[in-house]
Amino acid sequence: GHVMQVATDKVVVIHYTLKNASGEVLDSSSGGDPLAYIHGNGNIIPGLEEALEGKVAGDKLNVSIAPDKAY
What are phi and psi of 52, to 5 degrees? Predict the structure, then answer.
């Protein structure tokens, strides 16, 4: 079947856990609704969009985002 790949103007739905440098969980979608956004439109932090580009449904990734690529 066709695998959905993350690309500009696609609606992407992700579950996420956001931690700070010392590993404390700051925010998480776990147990709640996933985050849905339109890729490539600057709706989420740039570093995360870059990391998700070209990924396919079911991929899991850990992303460390530099401060200049975050809000």
Answer: -85, -15
Digit-coded pLDDT (tens) for 17-49: 999 889 999 999 999 999 999 999 999 999 999
> Which pair of tokens denotes residue 41?
């439109």
> C-alpha dihedral over 22, 23, 27, 33, to 10 degrees?
170
Q: Which residues neighbour 63 within 8 Å (Cβ) at sequence distance 6 or greater?
A: 47, 48, 51
What is the per-residue pLDDT for 60? 93
Residue 11 burial (C-beta neighbours within 10 Å; 0-12, 13-18, 19+)? exposed
Query: pTM of the full predicted structure?
Result: 0.79
